[in-house]
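pasting for ref
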Amino acid sequence: MGPFLLGVLNWFCVVPCVFLKVPQIYKLFSNKNTKGLSLRGYLISCSRFTFTVVYHVRHSYPLIYYLEYPFLAVQDLVLIHLMLYYDRRLTTSTATTSVMTYCTYIAIMMLLPIQMMQLLQVLFIPISVFGKCSHLSALYQAKDSRNLSLFNWAITCLTCIGRIITSYAKLGDWLLILKFAVNTTLNFIVSCMIVYYSPSRRQPKKSV
């Protein structure tokens, strides 16, 4: 793949992610309830995005290959705190503890040996699957996707496909490629479930 096409694909992955979860945040803010959402799923997602940033930094990969992940991690943090707030579990102590835990997590990741980072990248694949399954389980139990943003999950699926291509073309990191392939599949399944459990789709048709 030529440098121009690779650059276009990189920016295709980055630009939508800058505001990717804003529709999800808006839905949660508007509906003011967490039905169909998985707090555990977003906690795992946030830790995974943060680890991905540190992993790329520690391997000295070009910034354009992971620029979207800091934005995604911040948006996940907003979602997590909104979910805690609407579940009446957010206190000053909870917020302070979460910030301190997050900063400690980053510091530990930055200090680990590179070999340990490779091992954690392998371990994060099943952890990521568990996180996505938490979203699937919450949606299946609620059988209502009004609180979930199809745009969010569909674009995430497309950007993961883009990252499979960029990781193969430039980085040659097969752990990253495997991770993106797994996430693409699971994001597609979640997107399909959002459509299936859409209130407008499941609303009974009026007889003429």
